[in-house]
Specification:
With 309 residues, the protein is α/β, with parallel strands linked by helices. It has helices at residues 12-27, 51-62, 84-91, 107-113, 130-144, 162-171, 191-199, 211-214, 234-240, 248-251, 282-300, and strands spanning 40-45, 66-70, 97-102, 119-124, 150-155, 177-182, 205-208, 220-223, 259-261. It has 11 helices and 9 strands. It has a 5-stranded parallel beta sheet with strand order 7-6-5-8-9. Strands 2-1-3-4 form a 4-stranded parallel beta sheet, sandwiched between helices. The structure holds phosphoric acid mono(formamide)ester.
Length: 309
């Protein structure tokens, strides 16, 4: 039985296969409409979510399966003090696969150690968000036609942004990847990722504070929101929250073939006037999130699919 805790749980070859499957699903959705008939997905969300929970549910429904779950800790027996390990033992009696989001780093890992069904990490604290990374990889590959030889700008809250941490871990395995890390000093990428992931893999990167300085050299600009829920005090959040605002003026500095991604939700960091720019790809990214989660569910449930037919 396989779980998904980190993007590194899949080899590059396995990831390529998963992304190929997602592309086939996009092209021929009817072929997969009953692939999960009789299967149940449980979504166990101890933290708020719109996209991750509903896209997992949409994915299972598109595959002909069924869904159940809770969308906040308050509406589950966690509010009465039930542990994650007891909860997953219980859910294993009801469902065939589950997706868990939790504010504590490592909680989905605890779940998978006590689970008899595949567990998908749907985001754990400031640590990892592997299904967002699968979404990002599929989006980049579809937009640019490759995952190699690219300069990726990561902008905003690089300290607490788990989507950024997961994406860096995944992309360093491809040839010719360079990063421009765009953040205020206080929200720099954590030292353990700079050292253990970037330096250890000899990945070229530079750190800049001004978004304008980075824009002309990017193939992808990955914007992130400042993670209010991870700040210790409101004052620091208020000081940081509007540090970056991508607007039409700044987009003039970007190459014609640079795409803007954002895991969403957006707060103020991308002005709505950018939404009509053909390079704004964040809502296309949302759609890719459904295809890739369909591919993930099929893969973790080991449901055979023939991409040739
Ligand atoms: N991208 C993402 O994780 O969005 P949600 O918080 O809405 O799930």
């Amino acid at each position: 039985m396989r779980h998904l805790m980190s993007p590194l749980d899949f080899s590059v070859e396995e990831l390529d296969k998963l992304l190929d499957l997602a592309q086939d699903i996009e092209a021929k959705p009817e072929k997969y409409a009953h692939a999960c008939a009789g299967k149940k997905l449980a979504t166990l969300f101890y933290e708020p979510s719109t996209r991750t929970r509903l896209s997992h549910e949409a994915a299972m429904l598109n595959l002909g399966g069924s869904i159940m779950g809770f969308s906040s800790a308050d509406s589950s027996s966690a509010a009465k003090g039930e542990s994650v390990s007891d909860t997953i033992r219980t859910i294993s009696c009801y469902a065939d696969i589950c997706a868990m989001r939790h504010p504590k780093e490592g909680a989905p890992m605890v779940a998978c150690q006590h689970s008899s069904i595949p567990v998908i990490n749907a985001g754990d604290g400031g640590h990892q968000h592997p299904t967002q990374t699968l979404t990002d990889l599929l989006t980049i590959r579809n937009l640019k036609g490759r995952l190699e030889n690219m300069t990726i700008g990561l902008c905003g809250d690089l300290k607490f942004g788990r989507t950024v941490h997961s994406l860096i871990n995944a992309l360093v395995r491809y040839e010719g990847i360079r990063f421009v890390l765009i953040s205020p000093e206080e929200l720099r990428l954590p030292e353990y990722i700079r050292h253990d992931v970037l330096d250890r893999n000899s990945i070229p990167y530079e750190e800049v504070v001004r978004l304008e300085d980075a824009m002309p050299k990017l193939d992808i600009l990955y914007m992130t929101r400042v993670q209010k829920e991870r700040f210790f005090n409101e004052e620091d959040y208020v000081r940081m929250k509007d540090f970056y605002i991508l607007d039409r003026e700044k987009m003039k500095l970007a190459p014609e073939d640079m795409y803007v991604l954002h895991p969403l939700p957006r707060v103020n960091e991308i002005s709505v006037e950018v939404d009509d720019d053909p390079r704004a790809a964040y809502f296309r990214q949302v759609q890719y999130g459904v295809y890739v989660r369909m591919a993930l569910i099929l893969t973790l449930l080991d449901i055979p699919v023939d991409q040739q037919s």
